[in-house]
Please model this.
Amino acid sequence: MRDKEIIFRPDRGKEKITFTPEKCIQVQFQYGSDIMMALDMCTHPGDPIDVQRRSVELTVRWGERCKAEFEKLIRQTKPEKRPLLFGIVQGGADPELRMECGRRLEEIGFDGYGFGGWPLDADGSFRADILKMAADAMPDHKIKYAMGLGKPEEIVQCVQMGYNLFDCVIPTREARHQRLYVFSENGATREGVRSGGKFYRFYYAMDDKNARDARPVDESCDCELCKNHSRAYLHHLFRVNDPQAMHLATAHNLRFFGRLMQLLQEK
Ligand SMILES: [Zn+2]
Model:
């Protein structure tokens, strides 16, 4: 990690990939990204304060260079196809550094802001306090993006802090591993998801008891799986390794997270 760029050596071999803020924006234009992220230096909450300071300094400086490159490249883009550019708020577990990072990034001016850094501490516990610090450092009229989160209960907390955009492998990865999310009784309500209690449970597609069960996985769900197929059918598809099993389980988990977001948006 240098002040001007990041150099990767995949497999510690001779091959060298240099990543500059400018290149990072150029490749995102090539991908056709609709939301682009500025280059940042990611830290762990346990990293020492001088590392956190350097991360904020580099993230702001790189953010400025990303913004300049973005401005240059959008001149060649049709206005209706204009992508968004987000900055990333670093600062570890230090509230002042988080505030400083948020303020300096907003001076440069981004369309939204992402939570930067690792959201778990050394024992793997979710650091809600750090998520909150970063949300507070982002202007309220812009999109707040909780990058890489999270479990349903973490999403509930993050929405309460002001985050409104998420991305995570959990719904699709769990579906491929035959684990489906279903709302508990009274869980799928505005109050249920906010209660602080367990509003959902796991449904294991391969449990023996599902092999002859004609009911849908979740009677309250309107996804492709629950509307058209039984628990027994999903069990069968997984048993014979039909890729349709993963497709249907994925559609269901994505719909669960979509319904969760709708419930959290209900006034
Ligand atoms: Zn469903």
